[in-house]
């Protein structure tokens, strides 16, 4: 029955024993290994004096659920827009034609270019290729390998860039540099294996050009194709766009960064589908980071950050890693999103404005300690944080935080449907924390923490119960029985609480009725999800307390 709850010993194993496979035989296998041991940060303050930061490590026996990288392809149905008036219509390769071909083949220290258009000019310096194009409807086909090569494209028009088995490293900067403000249709040809690696230190770019990552574009990048793509960002970001990036169904992209963000954009990030695996190891770095909106429409995205928090002298503030950092709105309609942050001050989903979840599966885990710099500058390890209103209209959310609130909204938080399990740390932290009001109108919500989750009785229409109990041990099964002695549900504690505050709301509860909470028993049968069981049998339990369903 238990498919996602592991023993206590898994806590150490999950943090220390998994590793990113970087061998040439299998460059796409990635898993969680915090090679940067969790330790105090040491950053320079604006005056130049070295002041160490401090990670406040939790003392907790939280039983972790598993978040690990998975490159297995997905079978997805993609909805291709047919309305030409929609902005995203032009993002789909199917609506464009490409009549001119430029084939670029890398071979060690040399490269060859074969073209069919006089409006495409190029230069070659060893294996570094620069293209200047005024032509329309151009398709660039790239293949071969070089440990000292690159491709830079200047174009006045949108184009298709198709990789057909490329292994390209640029020891001077970015292996793919797109100096074009138009769309780039970035296609990894089916069954191809492609690897791109940037320099650890970039040479100065000519004419103050931007060159912000292993794959960089001044314009939009639309990723498609089922071939595998490995991006190794050693000096800057993995993928960077001064516009937006879209990932389509079928993509299979793995990104490893040690100095920058996994994906960084100015305008937006859209995940329509595909398989994305991001392993971000730099201190203070993010997995998906955008100054604009971020939407998840499908696919399976897994992000693990393992860097420590840092003090940013320019901002005079501290900054932790985040699996996702979105400066605008975040919307999730479908797909699977797995987020884990293991470093000090690390966050799972960090959104400046609103969060709306309409469907899909969201799993978030933060295992680092809170980070304190100086007297009063702190960054915490929240699982999900919203700067404004957060609305849940469907889907499933499981969110654990080792050292802080699991879910926190600076504005109003409303749950209309879906299933949420939120496990916060010991007091003074909560499973779910809304700084304005928390309303429940439907769905299933379970919140555990050291302090109570406050539910607005004036705005909540679905009954809920709360209990407070001392010394509840990890793995303890709690059961909820109605006045007829019938089992409503069971829940297994994912951690020990010196003082447990448990809030649960389901459609099975009836307002005004008294419910018995049982402990120290066993659960068999039923349907289980992260320790929450419905339809099971609870036996040999003892009465812990009673609670009346409100409102």
Number of self-contained structural domains: 2
How much β-strand is present in the residues?
A: over 45%
Question: Approximately how much helix is present in the residues?
Answer: under 10%
Structural class call reads: mainly beta
Low-confidence stretches: 1-51
Q: Could you describe the largest sheet, including whether it forms a barrel?
A: 26 strands, mixed
Mean pLDDT across all amino acids? 90
- Tell how many strands the DSSP assignment holds: 53
Structure description:
By secondary structure, the chain is mainly β. The protein folds into two domains: 208 residues, no CATH class; 185 residues. The chain has a 26-stranded mixed beta sheet that branches. It has a 13-stranded mixed beta sheet with strand order 5-6-8-10-13-16-19-22-27-30-35-38-41, with no helix packed on it. A six-stranded antiparallel beta sheet has the order 50-51-46-45-48-53, with no helix packed on it. The protein is elongated, with a radius of gyration of 25 Å. 52% of the residues are buried. The N terminus is likely disordered.
Which helices and strands occur, and which strands form pairs?
Elements: H1 10-16, E1 42-44, E2 50-56, E3 100-107, E4 110-115, E5 120-125, E6 127-133, E7 138-146, E8 149-155, E9 159-169, E10 176-179, E11 184-188, E12 193-197, E13 213-217, E14 221-224, E15 228-233, E16 237-241, E17 244-247, E18 252-257, E19 263-265, E20 268-271, E21 275-280, E22 286-290, E23 293-296, E24 300-305, E25 310-312, E26 317-319, E27 322-326, E28 330-332, E29 336-341, E30 347-351, E31 355-357, E32 361-366, E33 370-373, E34 377-379, E35 384-386, E36 390-392, E37 396-401, E38 407-409, E39 413-415, E40 419-423, E41 432-434, E42 438-440, E43 444-449, E44 464-472, E45 477-481, E46 487-492, E47 497-505, E48 514-519, E49 522-524, E50 527-529, E51 532-534, E52 537-539, E53 542-548
Parallel strand pairs: 3-7, 6-8, 7-9, 8-10, 9-11, 9-12, 10-13, 11-14, 12-15, 13-16, 14-17, 15-18, 16-19, 17-20, 18-21, 19-22, 20-23, 21-24, 22-27, 23-28, 24-29, 27-30, 28-31, 29-32, 30-35, 31-36, 32-37, 35-38, 36-39, 37-40, 38-41, 39-42, 40-43
Antiparallel strand pairs: 1-2, 2-33, 3-4, 5-6, 25-26, 33-34, 43-47, 44-47, 45-46, 45-48, 46-51, 48-53, 49-52, 50-51
């Amino acid at each position: 029955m238990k498919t996602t709850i592991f023993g206590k010993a898994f806590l150490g194993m999950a943090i220390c024993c998994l590793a990113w496979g970087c061998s040439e035989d299998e460059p796409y296998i990635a898993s969680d290994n915090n090679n940067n041991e969790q330790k105090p940060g040491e950053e320079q303050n604006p005056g130049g004096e070295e002041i160490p930061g401090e990670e406040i490590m939790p003392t907790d026996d939280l039983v972790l659920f598993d978040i690990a990288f998975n490159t297995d392809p997905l079978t997805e149905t993609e909805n291709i827009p047919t309305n030409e008036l929609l902005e995203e219509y032009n993002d789909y390769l199917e609506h464009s034609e490409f009549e001119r071909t430029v084939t670029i083949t890398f071979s060690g220290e040399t490269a060859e270019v074969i073209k069919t258009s006089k409006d495409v000019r190029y230069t070659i310096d060893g294996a570094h290729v620069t293209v200047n194009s005024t032509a329309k409807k151009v398709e660039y086909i790239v293949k071969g390998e070089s440990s000292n090569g690159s491709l830079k494209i200047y174009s006045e028009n949108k184009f298709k860039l198709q990789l057909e088995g490329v292994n390209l490293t640029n020891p001077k900067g970015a292996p793919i540099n797109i100096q074009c403000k138009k769309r780039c249709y970035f296609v990894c040809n089916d069954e191809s294996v492609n690897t791109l690696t940037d320099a650890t230190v970039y040479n100065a770019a000519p004419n103050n050009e931007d060159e912000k990552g292993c794959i960089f574009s001044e314009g939009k990048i639309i990723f498609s194709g089922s071939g595998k793509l490995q991006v190794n960002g050693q000096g800057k970001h993995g993928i960077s766009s001064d516009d937006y990036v879209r990932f389509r169904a079928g993509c299979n992209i793995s990104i490893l960064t040690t100095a920058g963000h996994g994906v960084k954009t100015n305008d937006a990030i859209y995940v329509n589908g595909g398989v994305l695996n991001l392993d971000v190891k730099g201190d203070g770095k993010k997995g998906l980071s955008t100054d604009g909106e971020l939407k998840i429409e499908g696919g399976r995205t897994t992000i693990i950050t393992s860097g420590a928090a840092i003090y940013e002298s320019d901002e005079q503030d501290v900054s932790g890693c985040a699996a996702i950092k979105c400066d605008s709105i975040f919307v999730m309609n479908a797909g699977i999103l797995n987020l884990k942050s293991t470093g000090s001050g690390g966050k799972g989903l960090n959104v400046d404005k609103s969060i709306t979840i309409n469907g899909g599966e969201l799993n978030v885990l933060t295992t680092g300690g809170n980070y304190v710099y100086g007297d009063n500058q702190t960054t915490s390890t929240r699982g999900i944080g919203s700067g404004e209103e957060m609305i849940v209209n469907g889907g499933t959310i499981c969110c654990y935080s080792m050292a802080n609130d699991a879910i926190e909204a600076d504005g109003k938080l409303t749950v209309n449907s879906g299933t949420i399990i939120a496990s916060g740390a010991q007091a003074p932290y909560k499973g779910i924390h809304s700084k304005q009001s928390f309303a429940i109108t439907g769905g299933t919500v379970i919140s555990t923490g050291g302090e109570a989750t406050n539910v607005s009785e004036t705005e909540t229409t679905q009954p809920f119960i709360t209990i407070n109990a001392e010394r509840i041990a990890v793995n303890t099964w709690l059961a909820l029985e109605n006045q007829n002695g019938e089992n409503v549900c069971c829940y297994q504690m994912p951690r020990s609480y010196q003082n447990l505050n448990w809030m649960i709301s389901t459609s099975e509860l009836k307002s005004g009725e008294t419910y018995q909470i049982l402990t120290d028993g066993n659960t068999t049968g039923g349907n289980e999800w992260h320790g929450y069981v419905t339809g099971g049998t609870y036996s040999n339990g003892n009465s812990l307390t009673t609670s009346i369903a409100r409102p």
